[in-house]
Amino acid sequence: MRQEIIDELKQLLEQDSADIKEQVDHLKTRFYSANEEIEDEAAHAAEEEAFKELLAQYKAKRAESAAAQAKEQAENLSRKQAILDQMKEMVESGSADGVMANLQKMRDLQAEWKKIGQVAADKMQEVRKAYQQYQEQFYDLVKINIELRDLDFKKNLELKTLLCEAAERLQNNESIVEASRALQQLHDEWAEIGPVARELREDLWNRFKAASTVINKKHQAYFDELHAKEQENLEAKRAIIEQLKAINEPIVNGEPMTAKQWEELSGKVQELQNAWRAIGFAPKKFNQPIYDEYRAECNRFFATKKEFFIELRERRKEREQRHKEYLERQKAREERAKEREEQRKAFAAARGGDNLRRMHERLKQEIQTAENNILFFTAKSKTANKLVESMQKKINDLKKQLEEIQAKMDAED
């Protein structure tokens, strides 16, 4: 999953850095919140380094783009300021004849103004205000040519009416974020259009402002709801962390655990991880800290589990080795017992009836001991099963010998 995110980031970096900020932020969040169990530390570190390198490239491109944009905006500001200086001079020229003589120049300046790109945000309002002011002042001076002024006013009225209608249609846009961006564009266009007739200005502006207010309220409500949901997500994530801590606490404190219990807890942790992935973003300032806390609890659980099963495997190996050594000792004891049995048979034959009785008692004791010992072999393995079979065979052999001696004793009597 992390490699897929790296590949997506590589593709994004081929685009204009100014257009991909939200997508990069989203990939960054996905990358650092990916819940993959680390199997190969080297590969995991390599993925981390590759992703950081791509982020560094993105930041470099952003910085380069920002520098270029700042330079362009500074040049745009300089050009617009030069236009404003000319417009101010035209407004301050005073005479009606001078204003009329500058009418075409004003139009040329307006056309040139529209071709110039954006300026820095902290200068935008000031520049727009001055431009609007000089336009209105200039056209207010053009009283001598009412027909021409009315023509411009009529054109501007048509354009601004279209902007009002566009702003009102935005109320039906299901995406409030898109609607808000579109509204900002409409405001930019509004500022670039010249004035309308004085008696229409206030009503027209109020219509445009009313449509804008609807969008702005929806936009604010949308983000209020989004922030509320993010806070709800934060609480849900904190609840999951508390559950993880409740699982980890007895484990870390050394509470005895079986392999089955570990598997059951692993299932619960997996369920919590699935629940975490289903939760959306928390407030931005909490996203990384809350994830780091969550990741630490998950890592603590799986690290402790890994240690348990490593130790379990070692104990099993040690148990198997002890069992093997026990079987070897048991085999040696059986061989020695077999030798003693053969010697005993020979001795019994030589000693006669008394010996038969003593041998009869010894065999009974050996049978009793063997039957008691066989109860201790509970290990379930092929080796243990073979040992049980061997012990049972020995018991059967001893019982057979006991019957033979009993028969001889009965015959003597």
Notes on the protein architecture:
The protein has 413 residues and is mostly helical. Among the domains are: 236-310; 311-412, no CATH class. It contains 13 helices and no strands. Helix 12 (353-374) packs antiparallel against helix 13. The mean pLDDT is 82.
Summarize the structure.
The protein is 85% helix and 0% strand. It is mainly alpha-helical and 413 residues long. The two termini are 90 Å apart.
Between the first and last Cα atoms, what is the distance in angstroms?
A: 90 Å
Mean pLDDT: 82
Q: What is the general shape?
A: rod-shaped
Q: Determine the structural class based on helices, strands and strand pairing.
A: mainly alpha
Sheet-strand content, in percent, reads under 5%
Number of strands: 0
Helix and strand sequence: HHHHHHHHHHHHH
Summarize the main sheet. Answer: none
Low-pLDDT ranges: none
Integer-rounded radius of gyration: 46 Å
Count of helical segments?
13
Approximately how much helix is present in the residues? over 70%
Keywords:
13 helices; 0% strand; 413 residues; rod-shaped; mainly alpha
Task: Describe how the helices and strands are arranged.
Blueprint: H1 2-12, H2 21-32, H3 41-91, H4 96-101, H5 103-115, H6 121-141, H7 146-169, H8 176-192, H9 198-252, H10 259-278, H11 284-351, H12 353-374, H13 382-412
